[in-house]
Automatic annotation (TrEMBL):
PANTHER family the UniProt entry points to: NUCLEOTIDE KINASE (PTHR23359)
Keywords, sorted A to Z: Kinase, Nucleotide-binding, Transferase
Enzyme class, first EC level, given as a word: transferase
GO MF, any single term: AMP kinase activity
NCBIfam families cross-referenced by the UniProt entry: adk
EC nos: 2.7.4.3
Family according to the record: Belongs to the adenylate kinase family.
Organism: Dendrobium catenatum
Official protein name in the record: adenylate kinase
Length: 280
């Protein structure tokens, strides 16, 4: 049975999450594949089951999307699923907007329903494997995911907090093509032994420049609340996976040109892997 169907059944079978998680945890021994990267042949057949963790603005979407192209698995961002739902009209969209625009998390039940639907439609199209971005964000979500599928690896992206705020405030989306850009120019010099960091802006092409919009939840007040919510609700998820030996901490050294090759190296995905997949 696919992970998506199990995820959905798990949720439908019981509205009491605690019962689900106990049952789910018992069903799948956590030692299975714990802490190991799948072999390259396995990656091809099953597709990787990876998770990206990290604070708002850290760049989960950027690196998850690049890796999904490299490894040929879908990049599934629950924030995107929520925004698709927000774009629809109706009472539920308004309820969601009230939560998201305050920087709060939507309920575990809502997010699991959205994710299940996305996984099911992907499975129907023959997708296998995934890179999840923005899920799990609570211990309950992590336990439910653990009960329905075996996560191979969790990449925890790290960046200093003052940069996170700047990056969120600099985020722009082209209202026509949906492209993601960032107008923030980060150039913090080394100070008192604390390393500096340089990240150049990711500017849009001229045809997008006049169509840029910002996310409603990327205001200073809401980003600060999202960072607070991350520390309270999602930081424990890092510990959850650390204790399973699945967490790979990656401190971003700078912008994409500097960070991407280092991330590939940390994942044992070297240039030759990149070239092979480009040629395939
Ligand atoms: N796994 C999740 N659990 C609960 N709420 C979520 C989840 N994923 C996304 N959301 C909601 O969607 C919003 C946007 O998500 P995302 O784009 O991932 O934001 P961020 O930039 O903060 O990482 C979140 O602030 C939250 O309200």
């Amino acid at each position: 049975m696919s992970a998506s169907i199990r995820l959905l059944r798990c949720l439908k079978a019981s509205r009491a999450f605690s019962a689900v998680t106990t049952e789910a945890a018992a069903q799948f021994p956590a030692s299975l594949m714990r802490g190991s990267l799948p072999a390259q042949s396995d990656m091809k057949e099953r597709g990787v089951h990876w998770v990206f963790l990290g604070c708002p603005g850290v760049g989960k979407g950027t690196y998850a999307s690049r890796l999904s192209q490299l490894l040929g698995v879908p990049h599934i961002a629950t924030g995107d699923l929520v925004r698709e739902e927000l774009a629809s009209s109706g009472h539920f969209a308004q309820e969601l907007a009230d939560i998201v625009n305050k920087g709060k998390l939507v309920s575990d039940e809502t997010i699991i329903n959205l994710l299940s639907k996305r996984l099911e439609s992907g499975a129907a199209k023959g997708e296998s494997g995934f890179i999840l971005d923005g899920f799990p964000r609570t211990i309950r979500q992590a336990e439910i995911l653990d009960g329905v599928t075996n996560i191979d690896l969790v990449i925890n992206l790290k960046l200093r907090e003052d940069v996170l705020l700047e990056k969120c405030l600099g985020r722009r989306i082209c209202s026509q093509c949906g492209g993601n850009f960032n107008v923030a120019s980060i150039d913090i010099k080394e100070e008192n032994g604390k390393p500096g960091i340089y990240m150049e802006p990711l500017l849009p092409p001229s045809n997008c420049a006049s169509k840029l919009i910002s996310r409603a939840d990327d205001t200073e007040e809401v980003v600060k609340e999202r960072l607070r919510v991350y520390q309270a609700m999602s930081q424990p998820v890092e510990e959850f996976y650390r204790s399973q030996g699945k967490l790979l901490e990656f401190h971003l050294p700078g912008g994409i040109p500097e960070s991407w090759p280092k991330l590939l190296k940390a994942l044992n995905l070297d240039d030759s892997h990149e070239k092979r997949s480009a040629a395939a």
